[in-house]
Structure prediction request, 332 residues.
Amino acid sequence: MNHVEIWIWAISVAVVIGFFFFDFYSHVRHAHVPTMKEAGLWSLFYIGMAFVFMFLVAWQWDWNHAGDFIAGYATEKALSVDNLFVFLLLMTSFKVPKIAQQKALLIGIAMALVMRTAFILAGAWVLEQLSWVFYIFGAWLLFMAVRQFIESFDDSDPEMPGWVMQLKKLIPASENYDDDKWTIVENGKKMVTPLVLVVVALGFTDLLFALDSIPAIFGITQEPYLVFMANALALLGLRQLYFLIDGLLEKLRFLDLGLAFILGFIGVKLVFHALHVNELPFINGGQPVEWVPDIPTWFSLVFIFGTLIIATVTSFIYASKEEKAEASTEAE
Prediction:
């Protein structure tokens, strides 16, 4: 697959699967609510893994590909944090007890990674065969950037997707969780608990989010191996991150706005790349457009990390001012 041999793919996939099993047997199998310290340490561990992998890519490949990976990872991680708002909404809607949330998140995320991998491989094949698809990816990201920009000014609470409500009707389930069990016996009849619905909802919700994130990372690198690893490493630590920033999500007020600029930037980058490899006869006579600027990796890194830092810092400054204003109002 492009420049990566199949044995490297096999080892990488095995390591990712191994970490999911490790996560399940060491943390999720015995239901508990993770402490802030536990969630924080494991979040740092998985973020550290991404940087270790970046250095491995630089060592075995080059710093250009390493930069592509870490830029893609940062974008996927930021989009994942934004998606946690919806995860929190799902947990609240289904009234998932804290003790069962770890299992629901881990299995839902594992499902999403399997489906995303299929998307990545299919996307890589399509882009290799049909270079004009870059135009579609670029236009889609520009559309999503505009929609994200508009929605970032909407202060109303997000609504539950309609298909989730339909899911409740399609899969009859008990109202009781029985801690984090999958099934329960009620009135002599064996039924699934709502945890089954939650896992399915989380998995498919994350798959819908992939409609943004997969084209976005293909705008940074067209190497399917790096796309897969960026997704896998971003998703691996998502469960811990959910518990770590549960109380901070509402303070990240400008994250949506920052992501809108990042998606727009990557959309433009994809269109530029499409023009560089142009084969459409009605554009420049079917020849590549040479005058279009080539956006280097270092600029992508500066733009993505710079935007995320500005969005995060301004969010916390704004939240701090709001808290002070509320405190002074209450004092009066």
Observations:
- The first helix runs from residue 6 to 28.
